[in-house]
């Protein structure tokens, strides 16, 4: 069954149409990676899918319900969104900030339970920040705050995780940590949509790749079919070549500098 799909989805800010004709589909436990040039509408698309832009046209179906008819509390039990950038801001400690992310599991007056603390401990391990549990979120580095924001989504235990450029502030080791985490989550049947500017990341984790080509055209398909030299060259309007790396057992994308 599809975790989420859209039919003829379009969205405009005031009169400026940003995305159109988007037929997107993510099955249970699948990873969809969205690529597209700056300003094409990736964040706008992910915001629509996360329920942040209610005034879209067309259909967004989350499991068997239309997104617009799902309450925000109900939505927080099935979907978590990590927005672009390093915007985790709080004077709380990292531990308390993550614990607060469990609040949708409780009534306003109830206290966190043992299972909430256990989940926070597990997520601290997953994002590699256990040693910073007592540190104030506002005192963290950009990369640490991006990992914190991912952790905050994970404590929600979503069935669908949507992340807008989740590795943009991360060093190479932490990029790999997040990509491996994404793979591991998909293996326990969590469906994932991420955007990125790096086609190599799409090749590393994507089951499917979606290209936002212009405000009328969205192309989605199997990773190896969509990530071709021609498609990427057309998408970024810059020549991109691919070479097969036998050590990595996959194609690597790059550009000649001469
Ligand atoms: N709140 C807004 N009001 C009006 N226009 C907006 C708003 N937010 C974004 N836009 C415009 O919508 C277009 C798509 O922006 P969006 O952030 O979705 O692109 P993107 O593909 O995520 O870009 P990037 O790769 O640079 O992050 C841009 O032209 C942007 O200027």
UniProtKB/TrEMBL annotation:
SUPFAM superfamilies named in the record: P-loop containing nucleoside triphosphate hydrolases
Domain of life: Bacteria
Keywords: ATP-binding, Nucleotide-binding, Transport
Domain ABC transporter positions: 4-239
One GO MF term attached to the UniProt entry: ATP binding
InterPro entries, A to Z: AAA+_ATPase, ABC_transporter-like_ATP-bd, Metal_Ion_Import_ABC, P-loop_NTPase
Pfam families in the cross-refs: ABC_tran
Keyword Nucleotide-binding applies: yes
Family (UniProt): Belongs to the ABC transporter superfamily.
Name listed for the protein in its UniProt record: ABC transporter ATP-binding protein
UniProt source species: Companilactobacillus mishanensis
